[in-house]
Amino acid sequence: MNRYEAVIGLEVHVELKTDTKLFCGCSTEFGKEPNTQVCPVCLGLPGAVGVLNKKVVELATKAGLALNCAIGTYTWFDRKNYYYPDLPKGFQISQVFRPIAYQGHLDIDVNGATKRVNITRAHIEEDPGKLVHSGGSITTSRYSCVDYNRSGMPLIEIVSEPEMHSGEEAKAYLEKLKAILECIGVSDVKMEQGSLRCDANVSVRPVGTTTLGTKTEIKNMNSFRSVQYAIEYEVERQIDVLEDGGRVIQETRGWDENRGITVSMRNKENPDYRCFIEPELTPIELTEEWIEEVKASIPELPDARRKRLVEEHGLPEYDAGVITSSLALAEFFDATLKEFPDAKSISNWIMGELLRLLNARNMELSEAKITPSSLAALLKLIEKGSISNKMAKEVVEIMFDEGKEPDQIIKEKGMSQISDEGQLAQIIAEVIAKNPKSVADYQAGKKQAIGFLVGQIMKATKGRANPGLVNTMLRDKLAEEA
User: Fold this and answer.
1) Phi and psi for 320 in degrees, rounded to 5?
2) Which of 36, 257, 352, 401 is the most buried (most CB within 10 A)?
3) Do 137 and 130 form a contact (C-beta atoms < 8 A)?
4) HEC states along 365-407?
């Protein structure tokens, strides 16, 4: 491995968040019955001519600007010719020669270091249909059916330069890209629904050389983790081929999640798409004024938000990175902060209990019933000493599942924390009287003995005693009796 360097470039296909398709009025809603959202245009029937969806141009321009790209003021569409069952026209309408956005970049953080990955282009194209395989994957199926609901969906394809050198870097790039696209609202970027898909071009070369090796293209990866694992496997596979005296073949390979390997799908030694300008669609002309209007509509981007959380609210870089990795988390954090001004406490609860519950339930934040306002209310109760952190973890789980306010839960469960010094003094006196050996051990210098006494007090109060107050009062009482 140390003798070779991996070279990785990513092609990311992003479905744009529009109500209708790229060139027709068919719905883009996900999950409908196969072949129910189609018309002569997206089915590619002879004589059917489409009209460009203006919203697509706006969203593609916004994405390009957010990715630090230059925007082409004069662009057009091209025909990319190839045959596949999910492409009824026999060609795909794309932007081969003049993309709407180009020469951008994205900065990623990997292992504490910042790396810039240049973006070659981001162009508009139509999505083909979808093959539904009988056996779950193309390599294990006896037959496949075609669903054309996806045919004609508006995409942008974002192509990076081959500048990444590990699966970890590729994963970081995708996470950053997803966060930006979600933040600006151009796509819902749901990999499980296919609205964000990634193909990885992978090659290896001897360390110290600059000539690119023969690349393979990996498809069928349904998560960022899968992208990382597929790349890592493919790098090792190519190195093994070279070490055995073989030759890497330029081909498309699929990722087999169950076996953790890539498998050959089709040869791609001499691809020829015979591209030419689409004759039935007029060019796109954009004015600088219109581009500036689109630019003005871009909200605070994840990097700017992370910087604000660090500089204005004192969050550690790590916390700020986790919070801004998701638009939903970032907005939840900001909304909570408006009602409770302790940023670090909010961050601790979001990164701890909230993310734990989301992962355990396999849910999105939008599906949880907890609100920023109710979390702020819970943190205020902790700050006042009305409830302990341990109790609060139980309360927040009920808030998460049932949407109840913390006051209501505490009242129903009888969970209010005992902070009355008179009540606690009586309980402390009883515990001291019942445990003379532990008292003697503590007064003899075995300071750890106080832990047992505190435990007995918490047991007597069923965990409701204010632990900080208990520790202070108990130490004072033991000092008096020494």
Assistant:
1) -60, -35
2) 257
3) no
4) HHHCCCCHHHHHHHHHHHHHCCCCHHHHHHHHHHHHHHCCCHH
Among residues 312, 327, 286, the alpha carbon closest in space to that of 181 is found at 327
Token readout for 282 is 């007029």
DSSP character for 282? Answer: P
Measured in whole angstroms, how far is the alpha carbon of residue 450 from the centre of its chain? 46
Report pLDDT digits (tens) over 176-209.
999 999 999 999 999 988 899 999 999 999 999 9
What number of other Cβ atoms are within 10 A of residue 106's Cβ?
A: 20
**pTM for this one?**
0.84
Cα 190 → chain centroid: 9
Domains and CATH numbers, the chain: 11-194+271-290 (no CATH), 300-413 (no CATH), 421-481 (1.10.10.410)
Instruction: For residues 470 and 407, give the distance between their C-alpha atoms in angstroms, rounded to a whole number.
Output: 23
Strands (E), 340-460: none
CA 79 to chain centre: 33
What is the C-alpha radius of gyration for the chain, rounded to an integer number of angstroms? 29
